[in-house]
Write a structure and sequence with these properties.
It is globular, with a radius of gyration of 20 Å. The N terminus is likely disordered. It contains eleven helices and 13 strands. By secondary structure, it is α/β, with parallel strands linked by helices. Helix 4 links the parallel strand 4 and strand 5. Helices cover about 30% and strands about 15% of the residues.
Length: about 350
């Protein structure tokens, strides 16, 4: 049976998840991947970003907070992946190359995701010198017109030139840092996917990632490729959290540690076409307690156990009651935060 591009996007995400899970060490001995949000500020106003329906304060990670992250990395018994990303644009942080270098000094693999607009020659060379392992670039359209319509304030030719210059600045004969392309598929851009794959090859990208769209406004609900999941009868049970399975945690710009990226900030999204409010869940702050201590926190451990067993109501395929409108509780009596309505756990949304 031939699949549409929307279905292919889900399959790509699932294959990547299975391959990654098969190669990761046991996550219960400590975190394996740490998402670090250098800043929640961004120089663009993308139509599909959660910031379009967001009212949290903006800020950037200070030296004391990142020093606590590095100290936590040093205390771990194995190397991990540090991934600079989050709500904001990582390259907007003035000390990002220094942060990359500090993470590399303690043996971490370091990746980051960027919209590419701030990646000038000087910054690109600084990231390469700092030891960056992989630069992910978000490319969601193959034409300047469509790209500018999605990422307000950005020009596709400038981004492509920045990436080309970054690739050519790598030491001769080396493919490090790797270049990856991340694509968010939606109705208005899914036809560009073959062209984006070709474009990624010409940019020297060796990694590619596809995610479906998580709608944060009523306008963007119409852009989703998956149906707005009509209620199934009976509801489909189960889910698999890519963050918990991979042994990940996420640290926001203010040092707050959460079990996954979707819980770093409170946000608004849409499930079954209806507004759903997700409240952030914070285990603790890295400035007050170490990474390993926060990982072993009894509440955090109990949450991971619930998520692995996925003892949540099937809100993603049911959604027939008011409890599906938040992650506060569900009809199974699960305590906050509940994950039955999380589309990452259903394989629809994915992060690099």
């Amino acid at each position: 049976m031939e699949m549409g591009l929307g279905s292919r996007a889900v399959v790509v995400g699932e294959v990547l998840r299975e391959r990654t899970a098969a190669t990761l060490p046991d996550p219960e001995t400590g975190p394996v991947k740490i998402y670090v949000e250098p800043t929640s500020r961004c120089n663009l106003a993308c139509r599909f970003c959660s910031r379009t329906a967001w009212d949290e304060p903006l800020g950037e990670m200070d030296e004391r907070t990142f020093a606590a992250v590095v100290e936590g990395l040093r205390a771990l018994e194995r190397s991990v992946t540090v991934f600079f990303g989050g709500i904001g644009e990582p390259l907007a942080h003035p000390r990002l190359p220094e942060m990359v270098a500090q993470a590399k000094e303690v043996g971490a693999r370091v990746e980051l995701v960027t919209n590419g607009t701030l990646l000038d020659g000087k910054l690109g060379q600084a990231l390469i010198a700092a030891g960056l392992d992989c630069l992910w670039v978000s490319l969601d359209a193959a034409t300047p017109e469509r790209y500018g319509d999605l990422r307000l304030g950005a020009a596709l030719p400038d981004v492509l030139e920045n990436v080309r210059r970054f690739r050519e600045a790598r030491p001769a004969g080396r493919l490090r840092p790797e270049i990856g392309v991340a694509f968010v598929a939606m109705r208005r851009n899914v036809a560009d996917l073959p062209a984006i794959l070709d474009l990624a090859g010409r940019l020297g990208a060796t990694r590619f990632h596809v995610s479906q769209l998580l709608a944060h406004t009523a306008e963007m609900v119409e852009e989703t490729l998956y149906p707005q999941m009509p209620f199934s009868d009976p509801p489909r049970f189960g889910g698999s959290c890519p963050f918990i399975q991979a042994g990940a945690v996420a640290v926001s710009w203010d040092g707050s540690l959460s079990p996954c990226l979707p819980l770093v900030h409170s946000s608004v999204s849409f499930l079954h076409g209806a507004e759903r409010r997700t409240r952030r869940y914070v285990v603790g702050n890295v400035r007050e307690r170490g990474l390993l201590e926060l990982w072993e926190d009894p509440g955090h451990r109990a949450f991971r156990e619930r998520v692995r067993a996925f003892r949540f109501a099937p809100c993603a395929s049911c959604g027939s009651c008011f409890l599906a409108s938040t992650n506060e509780d569900d009809c199974f009596g699960a305590p906050f935060p509940t994950c039955g309505g999380c589309l990452w756990a259903q394989g629809l949304i994915a992060c690099p």
